[in-house]
Design a protein that fits this description.
With 462 residues, the protein is an alpha+beta fold. The protein has 13 helices and 14 strands.
Length: 462
């Protein structure tokens, strides 16, 4: 059977010849929570994978964050939990740095047995939006930023997480070491492994920064002319960071808000758009103050942000990140060179004009984020939407009027997403049902859990 993903046995054959040391390969399919699900296959199984795909149960796309079945997705017993076929994604078969014995990795995508895309697979949602833009003569380019924490494996005396000690000499710091280069030196062996692993997988990892909280860091990725490749980069880089941290005896944390008194971790998406002549349509020309397409894209993103918040903040912990003055936007505002707004137009060369989309936490699924952002841009271009006045100065102080329709918490975001025609269009009907059912199930799990905070507040007081 010809691979519907475009993969070919020649790619697998070249990999095996070029990497005789590889003994096994991780095959990884990303579910709606952004969790990598799959198997580890042996070397001799790689060619059959590329020749005929690999059966996987449909239920793997209907799991909650804990890996439990969510029956309301319709992907479990309604279908008899039958097998579908996963196929390799071309260009993602790479060696894994630092594994012993040596392993490789390939990303997968799910299809029906006849080769039709299984649309509860988040990657297909992004592909659909890319195709819509292609029909309009537009191609999105993009890059994600990855913020994360490096934490100690053990908790403190109060059971709270704490920043990891430097892997060089065990030095501890509980300070906000923002932009401290000396602080980065304490993690140099770990970051060197990350860069080596990224190079082995052709991931363009660039600048590392000590970010705005104890133990928080940021890695940037080079801009891609293919937004799907940018999302693949982010998925693979998170796996690299997690594995490298584990080897160095610390924990890489991609929760949106692991430490209550400090800023959380975002996953900013930088996006621009070129036409068939290769011109950036977000760049102003002919004396324009701003490109009309840029303003309409901003208008679409502003108009759809409320309905999209469940994609950008998908978990209970995601909503703890939205605190004023914490570099996490709380309203559909836009501005130029202003980090207090949700939609930032960075200063710089006119030819590289882009939108920095800032609401998403690092716990969000990059395929869903990119698909939803592109759908918002399409809506803005189609309907010629006006983003309203630019926000200048402190966007947090000016956010109340713009935030009137925004969901105030996770439950409100779930309810709004469930009824959203826009989000159904952005994700596709099947994935919309799957995603909102999984989030509803997760919400109920959290809501019925009696936490330590409950005992602290109420055990002896009521």
């Amino acid at each position: 059977m010809t691979s519907p993903s475009g993969s070919t046995p020649a790619e697998a054959q070249a990999f095996l010849v070029g990497h005789p040391e590889i003994e096994a390969i991780d095959i990884v399919l990303t579910d709606s929570n952004g969790v990598g699900r799959g198997k580890i296959i042996r070397r001799h199984e790689l060619m059959p994978l590329y020749e005929g795909g690999r059966h996987m149960p449909i239920s793997v796309l209907g799991l909650d964050i804990t890996g439990e079945d969510v029956h309301e997705t319709g992907l479990i017993w309604d279908s008899g939990d039958g097998d579908l076929r996963a196929w390799p994604i071309p260009g993602t078969l790479k060696p894994l740095h630092g594994t012993s014995p040596a392993r490789g990795q390939v990303l997968m995508s799910m299809y029906l047995l006849d080769g039709t895309p299984m649309t509860s697979d988040p990657r297909h949602a992004l592909a659909r939006q890319v195709a819509r833009l292609d029909a309009m003569g537009l191609k999105p380019a993009a890059a994600f930023e990855l913020e994360f924490f490096l934490l100690a494996n053990d908790r403190d005396a109060d059971g709270r997480v704490r920043p990891a000690s430097a892997v060089v000499d065990g030095r501890r710091s509980g300070k906000t070491e923002v932009y401290s280069v000396d602080h980065l030196h304490g993690m140099e062996p770990l970051f060197s492994d990350i860069y080596a692993a990224a190079k082995a997988q052709d991931i363009p990892a660039e600048t590392v920064i000590s970010e705005y909280a104890p133990g928080q860091y940021e890695l940037t990725l080079h801009y891609r002319t293919d937004i799907m490749q940018a999302a693949d980069d982010l998925v693979m880089l998170k796996r690299i960071v997690r594995a490298a941290a584990r080897r160095h005896g610390v924990t890489a944390c991609f929760m949106a808000k692991p430490i209550e008194d400090y800023a959380g971790s975002g996953m900013h998406l930088h996006v621009s758009m070129t036409d068939r002549d290769g011109r950036n349509v977000f760049s102003e020309a002919n004396g324009e103050t701003w490109s009309l397409d840029l303003l309409r894209a901003l208008g679409g993103l502003s108009a759809t942000m409320a309905e999209s918040m469940l994609v950008f903040a998908p978990h209970a912990n995601s909503w703890r990140r939205f605190v004023a003055q914490s570099y996490a936007p709380i309203a559909p505002t836009w501005g130029v060179n202003n980090r207090s707004v949700a939609l930032r137009v960075p200063a710089g060369d006119v030819k590289s004009r882009r939108i920095e989309h800032r609401p998403s936490g690092v716990d969000a699924n990059p395929y869903l984020v990119a698909a939803t952002v592109l759908a918002g841009i399409v809506k803005g271009l189609d309907e010629k939407l006006d983003p309203g006045p630019m926000t200048e100065g402190n966007g947090y102080e000016k956010a109340s009027d713009a935030a009137t329709n925004m969901p105030v918490d996770w439950r409100a975001a779930i309810e709004l997403a469930k009824s959203s025609a826009f989000l159904q269009d952005a994700l596709g009907m099947e994935l919309h049902r799957t995603f909102t059912a999984i989030k509803q199930s997760e919400y109920l799990r959290v809501a019925r859990t009696v936490s330590e905070l409950d005992y602290q507040l109420y055990l002896h007081e009521v």
